[in-house]
TrEMBL record:
This is Histidine phosphatase family protein. It comes from the Bacteria. Pfam families: His_Phos_1 (PF00300). InterPro entries: His_Pase_superF_clade-1, PGM_Phosphatase.
């Protein structure tokens, strides 16, 4: 995607799509859209770190998924800029039939034959919200934020899968993928730069990477007993 931006054009808008921080989830539940899952203490540190990182930026709009972990991640960012925190339902986590179950390596829901019917089509996917539906709603949320912050910057806090899917769409990659290869670490920023109404570049930064446990970083191999304790 082109990085050529007319710096003299005042109609350049930046929308940062942020993944929430670490969640307190000692039972290793795939929490999905379930209520009641809050940031851990480390997750709050991640949120504060990104708020500090974005404090010098020209942020005029902050919005989050309605889920607690996203709201709590966005709150210090909004506070740092003296803004009210908005909520957009379109930023919510992807629907998943395994919600509420454990989903670890070698154990959990995948061991049960009754669940195998949900794994027949990885291209749609058959276990949850279609990728195309995620693209539609996430593009809508991005465009709304672009309009709300036109000429400035916006921050949207969402969840790993919808962030990765909309980035893949914008960068013209296939939507089906290996989840282990998503570049969307906890508290990371996937940044879309618009010129007018057109996305002209996509960037990626990890302001809190030193706080992210090694096994949760992009490309890390799953670790039995650790990977399932954290969601998206």
């Amino acid at each position: 995607m082109s990085d050529d931006i007319n710096k003299n054009d005042s109609d350049v808008t930046v929308v940062h799509l942020m993944r929430h921080g670490e969640v307190a989830n000692p039972d290793g539940i795939l929490y999905g859209r379930l209520a009641g899952y809050h940031l851990s203490e480390l997750g709050r540190q991640m949120a504060d770190r990104v708020a500090e990182h974005l404090a010098p930026r020209d942020v005029t709009h902050v919005c989050a998924s309605p889920l607690e972990r996203a709201q709590e991640t966005a709150t210090p960012i909004a506070k740092a800029h003296g803004l009210d925190l908005a909520t957009d339902e379109r930023l919510i986590e992807a629907g998943n039939v395994f919600q509420g179950k454990t989903f670890g390596v070698g154990d959990g829901a995948l061991k049960k034959p009754a669940n195998w019917k949900h794994l027949v089509n990885p291209f749609r996917p058959s276990w949850g919200e279609p990728y195309v539906d995620q693209v539609v709603r996430m593009m809508g949320a991005l465009d709304a934020a672009k309009d709300a912050a036109r000429g400035h910057e916006a921050v949207l806090v969402s969840h790993q899968l919808p962030i990765w899917i909309v980035r893949s769409y914008v960068e013209r990659r296939r939507l089906w993928h290996d989840p282990r290869k998503r570049q969307c670490t906890l508290a990371s920023l996937t940044t879309f730069t618009y010129q007018g109404d057109k996305i002209v570049s996509v960037g990626y930064t990890e302001p809190a990477i030193d706080l992210v446990p090694a096994h949760l970083r992009a490309g890390a191999q799953p670790v039995k007993g650790k990977d399932k304790a954290f969601g998206a």
